[in-house]
Amino acid sequence: xxxxxxxxxxxxxxxxxxxxxxxxxxxxxxxxxxxxGRWAAxxxxxxxxxxxxxxxxxLAWALAVAPLTALAAQLAxxxxxxxxxxxxxxLRSLEEHNLPIAQALRGGDLALARRLTARIVSRDTEQxxxxxxxxxxxxxVLENGNDAVFGALFWFAxxxxxxxxxxxxxxxxxxxxxYRTPRYQAFGWAAARIDDVLxxxxxxxxxxxxxxxxxxxxxxxxxxxxxAPGWTSPNAGPVMASGAxxxxxxxxxxxxxxGVLEQRPPLGQGRAAxxxxxxxxxxxxxxxxxxxxxxxxxxxxxxxxxxxAHA
Length: 311
Prior knowledge:
The chain is mostly helical.
């Protein structure tokens, strides 16, 4: 935790950041991460050329992340740490971007559901069936439960505002540069690997939380243990497999990307996802958020009692 901030203060700031996110959601006119994305795109255009693409990618990552993180480390007032957490969290945005897909599917508006789903996933949706769309949205909620929520909470608890900002910026750069394409194979290697490292512990805590809150913990644990190794992403595998198992759904499988049908490993166990399962996935993420806040509050309380006993 940041020097000068007690455990109880960190928990209060965590709760404040989560509360702001649930109350206000994303800023409507201009989001700071959008501005960062433009800055990162300018850096990429400048450096992603010529020889030594790997070294250029490392330099680009440092130029994009280090100055902003260093600036955040100079924040003097605790409230600014909560404000940074609010900016970096995506709990309410998961609801706002995914529940309308469920509503469109329940209303039979397949065209709208396809358009909405295309905004949140990279797979093709033009010919997607209602089942395909429900599966894509449910997978997105489960995976982003870690990327947009629990990873942010974890790094805030570890290092306050600078920690959560560095994590979210690294996650953004992975989304922008972490592709195995000729353009990004070498240049984006550092962005992808750094994101993997920062997400390693949060992803497994997220998966464990999905298991803990599952109606069938053995099933969720079994899916995590047996299915996660089949995924190329070392962090998305545990999160999505345990989440699918927790919901009693079969996810994964076929998906089309840029016109190419890919057969992905299976996730979970049970029936196929439907419109109502999108909301179930989001409620699972919300429940885990309360679980994490409760556990952190309990730890802060224990620290206070231990300190009082030795005073």
